Amino acid sequence: MLTLQKTTPLDTKYLESLGFVWHTDRDESSYISDELVVISEAETEAYYEATNELYDMYVEAAEHVIENNLFHDIGIPFNLIDAIKASWENDVHWHLYGRFDLAGGIDGKPIKLLEFNADTPTALFETAIIQWAMLKQNNLEEAHQFNSVYEALVDNFKRLVTLEHDVSKFEERYHGWKFLFTSIRGNSEEENTVRLLQHIAVEAGFETEFAYIDEVEFSAQEGIFFNDENYELWFKLIPWEDIALEESDLAMLLTNIITNQKAIIFNPPYTLLFQSKGLLKILWDLYPNHPLLLESSFEPLEGQKQVKKPIFGREGGNVSILDENASELESVEGDYANHKMLYQAYTELPTDKEGKSYQAGVFYAYEACGLGFRKGGKILDNMSKFVGHIVS
């Protein structure tokens, strides 16, 4: 059984002073757990190494999809294929950050990849800021955490200009590039996450502005505008698959903007390849029986317990656990039933004495940079809790 350390919960007034306003779930329970997962330095190092290796494998798998024209196989909408290819082929389209969801890694269980939230990962604020504050407010040593997300993002913003590991050359190449940050209107979690990223970009040295998506104007020939000002760099916390499926005109405009080199968009279109859970099947084809992977297929797996999940989906929506005969044991309703389904071998998550499951999330920004946990049922849904950690 995993080890937990009780803490004094963070006061909601304090959380709101940080800009963290989504602290209470709809049942009035706290979204932030008052416990920390205790992990060892060896477990921390294993998460770091596994995440870096998985990212390299994802790059290989994406290259395989592009070279063999497997876009349809993994559910990529046809109207983004040109944008994906254009962004993949030019280094200026830098992947800013993503989050790997992993089973195991604690309680003696091996690390296994569940999926990669590469395009619009949630829990950034919680991982980078809130769990650090939990240590600080409880008079615990703040350095005893695998959490350099903030610093890693500062450096990775600089790499958008240097395009290399060394960020010391940022100043000499920086020419006051303007960065527009955008979220949808009316979602405080998404807006404050975007504003956190904007704050980090300012610290990195960029001039920035924030706008809601309905305030931004797009021109295939001229680029991206807000208040009549042209922006070369645009960050949007809007999933690429939503743009492709629900805003096809915008998908075409953005493809033309990228092709005409009028703006660089973050995260770039090729992160949709990483985001697709269909890539888990490609990974298994390329790296069969790899110790970090679970068997994955577009057909039900024979004779083993498995998880059925949509290749694009969030918060456990339309995820099912199936038994060895592919009969449903447990499921969560959702809005993603029309997507192609992936079947992935089932693996047990570490549990506490109440039987709650714990799933690790490791953020990646040029390298693995921060760990957090989510706690919930067998299938983690939108009522799962965020759990911080401390390295013993």
What would you note in describing this structure?
The chain is 32% helix and 24% strand. With 392 residues, the chain is an alpha+beta fold. The protein has one domain. It has a 7-stranded mixed β-sheet with strand order 1-2-19-18-17-3-4, sandwiched between helices. Strand 14 (320-322) and strand 15 form a beta hairpin.
Helix content: 25-40%
How widely separated are the two ends?
A: 16 Å
Q: Which of globular, elongated, flat, extended, rod-shaped describes the shape?
A: globular
> Proportion of β residues?
15-25%
List keywords for this structure.
32% helix; alpha+beta; 392 residues; seven-stranded mixed sheet
Short description:
Helix 3 runs parallel beside helix 9.
Helices, strands, pairings?
Blueprint lengths: L3 E3 L5 H6 L14 E8 L1 H27 L13 H9 L8 E6 L8 E6 L6 H14 L11 H14 L7 H4 L4 E6 L4 H17 L2 E6 L4 E3 L3 E4 L2 E3 L1 E4 L3 H7 L1 H12 L4 E3 L4 H5 L2 H9 L9 E2 L8 E5 L9 E3 L5 E4 L9 E5 L11 E8 L3 E9 L8 E7 L1
Parallel strand pairs: 2-19, 5-6, 5-10, 10-11
Antiparallel strand pairs: 1-2, 3-4, 3-17, 7-8, 8-9, 12-16, 13-14, 13-16, 14-15, 17-18, 18-19
Helix pairs in contact: 2-11, 3-9, 5-7
